[in-house]
Amino acid sequence: MNTLEGEGRQFNIVILGAGYDTRCYRLGSIKKNTNAKLYEVDAAGSQESKINALNNANIDTRHVSFVSVDFETQDWMEMLQSKSDFDKSIPTLFVWEGVSYYLDKHVVLSTVSKVSKCGRGSYIAFDYFDESCLNSTMRKSSKKIGEPLKYGIDSVDDFVREYSAQSRIDDHELKVVDNLRSDELKERYLAKSHGRYIGYSSEFGGFLMIGSPPIYKAKLLIAPSKSAIGNVLADQIVQTCQVALELRDVFTIALSGGSLPSFLQTLSTRFKQAGIDPEWRKWHVLLADERCVVSTDADSNLGSIRTNFTNNVPIPTKQIYGIDETFLKLSESTEIIAISYEEEVVKPLLQKCSGMLDCVVLGFGPDGHTCSLFPNHPLLNEHTRLVAPIDDSPKPPSSRITLTFRVLNKLSRQIIFCGAGSSKRPILEAVYKNGEAIEQTPKKVVNVKTLEVEMKTPAPYPCGMVRPQGKDSLVWVVDADAAKSISIYNK
């Protein structure tokens, strides 16, 4: 929904079994968003009581459409459409909390399967109890207070198969986006810092988000040769920098290491050829990831960036941010180095550039990793930190720090991937869905082929999981050698 909001597209938020849920009234970002249409669906009696309470408290409800329904006997989707202006063809988030375990199994399955009939990019998020936890004592106790527990989920895989069986062949395929157990909920949403928590969650179940992921598209620029990649990449950075300086009078750019810095050598020349002043004094350069070595070490990303780029342009030295090397001399942990970089570098720079980095330039390995985010590594599920430590990198050196997906997908205005050579072909074939592409307005800058590609969901590799929000926010720059084995190159 954040992506749709950023693009100015219309979307719905439906609170199912709303009860006395107050999010539509207390969360300013929801209430004030003119692109969001809000609906509350609940039993008639409960809804009437809530509306009266809201009116008595002088709370404005004009931005919310109320629909009353009996979940046990009526089709809530039909009621929602017939009693309001709800348009199921546009993306919708259905929030369904504190309800599923009070309903019969067939009602729960039917409710979830209805999401497949809504526009692509629709999701339903709901909590559930484990069936094994709903023992006879709990059922009897809940029945005595008039709210009998009826249904629990022990196997999410079995649940998926059952609701999928209720969907028609032309419905969107639903996928489990998240299945957060108690400990995961605690870590993602209740962790404050350094092992402290601001609350607790039930240990009897979890929280599921199921939906039909939206189509995510990226721009793919295919340079005729490896030697031409630098100019293509530079032109993208020139455009992004110009916009950032005009709007915010500062430019923040995060860079990876490896072979990537070598592609930055023509950047200064491309600014001159475009007739644009880069205003280097307003640049702030940080690291997308770094090996925990001193900057003079051959493995240092900062060392490579200095050699290939920053030593040749007048960016103030104090605005080029490496790790604090005193921690290395003191043999401090990777954890301490990551915390320091997040607190002393990333957070202050985010404040300086209105909450989002302007540009992040990344490479991608033949194993599909990017930054220091490797396939099947626990860091792929890190949603709290901005900078994370890693001490078991599959590639040496083993100790590193890296920006997380929270920064890449939520806090970056543009991500540019860059890669060359035949070793990249399997990754490109895997991350683009079926190798299909739609050519955009032809651009013949140094014979660059410009394509619009659909990213595969779910992403098979970490580099494919990078999906910043906003239109044209993801760009891939590769050479013909990397692209020529995939069908999109020949279209």
As a percent range, the share of strand residues is 15-25%
> Span from first to last CA?
33 Å
> What CATH first level of the largest domain would be assigned?
Alpha Beta
Task: Note poorly predicted spans.
Answer: 3-7, 440-444
The tally of strands reads: 21
Q: How many distinct folded domains?
A: 2
- The secondary-structure class comes to alpha/beta
How many strands, which pairing sense, and closed or not: the largest β-sheet?
Answer: 9 strands, mixed
As laid out across the biggest beta sheet, the strand order is 14-12-11-15-18-21-10-20-19
Rg computed from alpha carbons, rounded to a whole number of angstroms: 25 Å
Number of separate helices: 17
Bin the helical content. 25-40%
Oligomer: single chain
What fold name goes in the CATH topology slot of the largest domain? Rossmann fold
Describe the structure.
The protein has 491 residues and is an alpha/beta fold. The chain folds into two domains: 2-211, Rossmann fold; 217-490, 3-Layer(aba) Sandwich (Rossmann fold). Helix content is 30%, strand content 22%. The protein contains 17 helices and 21 strands. It has helices at 2-6, 23-26, 28-31, 44-56, 76-82, 105-113, 136-144, 156-164, 182-190, 226-248, 267-274, 301-308, 326-329, 334-352, 405-410, 425-431, 480-483; strands at residues 11-16, 36-42, 64-68, 92-96, 123-129, 175-181, 191-193, 196-197, 205-211, 217-223, 251-255, 283-287, 289-291, 320-321, 359-362, 387-390, 400-403, 415-419, 432-439, 449-455, 474-479. Strands 14-12-11-15-18-21-10-20-19 form a nine-stranded mixed beta sheet, sandwiched between helices. Strands 3-2-1-4-5-9-6 form a seven-stranded mixed beta sheet. β2, α4 and β3 (64-68) form a beta-alpha-beta unit. α6 crosses α8 and α10 crosses α11. The longest helix is centred in the middle third of the chain and has 23 residues, at 226-248. It is elongated, with a radius of gyration of 25 Å. The relative contact order is 0.10. Mean pLDDT is 87; it is low at 3-7 and 440-444.
